[in-house]
Amino acid sequence: MKHYSVLLKESIDGLNIKEDGIYVDATLGYGGHSSEILKRIPLGHLYSFDQDEEAILYAKERLSNVANNFDIIYSNFVNLKEKLNELGVHKVDGILFDLGLSSPQIDTISRGFTFQNDAPLDMRMDLNSKLTANEIINTYSLEELSNIFYTYGEEKMSKVIARRIVDERQKKKIETTKELVNLIAGAVGAKYFNKNHPERQIFQAIRIEVNGELSVLSKVLPDAIDLLNKNGRISVITFHSLEDRIVKQIFKKESEIDEIVKGLPVIPDEYLPHIKLINKKPILPSEDEINENSRSKSAKLRVIERI
Hints:
The structure is a single chain. By secondary structure, the chain is α/β, with parallel strands linked by helices. Helix content is 46%, strand content 14%. It contains 14 helices and seven strands. The protein has a seven-stranded mixed beta sheet with strand order 3-2-1-4-5-7-6, with helices on both faces. β2, α3 and β3 (70-74) form a beta-alpha-beta unit. The protein starts with 7 loop residues before the first helix and ends with a strand.
């Protein structure tokens, strides 16, 4: 199974790994990052999270060929702190988040993540969760669809596309990715469609809504910072501007003195910065990596350290 781990060396190096440390891979996927972490912690332990059972089965076998000092937790990473606490783990030395879809997820046509093949409208990362792309497209109101497309897809023609979907589903339920792409093309016209590729933005928006991606990210990052030992690090790889904006804002807030107490002669500890930024600007993939894996083109890596 072919899978590229984006910014692999940079994100692992960013964790500044200690051989006896406790580490978390919040997004196990097919095990690329977890494998590299395991190689560097012969005296430590790794906890890896994922909500995709197919990925877990594959990764478990892969990691077992590297070492056995790991545990895999079947859960969305939003539950990271709670699940680790249940295992008696209250502090860790590093956490990695790779927020991209894995190549096998994209390439498994039946998952419905890509607009390049015809497939059922699904887009669930966790196949046991209930909300699907089909339900969103066929039951959400015009206003809800338009808002999702605009907010999560940053699509200028969101209302026009939403209107076409609502009109068409009254005649016939929309079942497949190809039907949806054709509706988008029909709504915006050939010139706009070919120039701006709105299907990319719409599919991104639906996927974010199906999986609650932005809300879970906003919740988990403060929890992750709280879990870190002093000098512990977090590496986060994002793949679109909405994710990166959330990461950037949370890291900025946590790395600055709270506005409430700025200017006081003595600042209480709880208002001091909790972290420092290891890289002020995001680390980007090299040209070589982009040439080898075009899906890495939009990736950005941000790293912080607990102080």
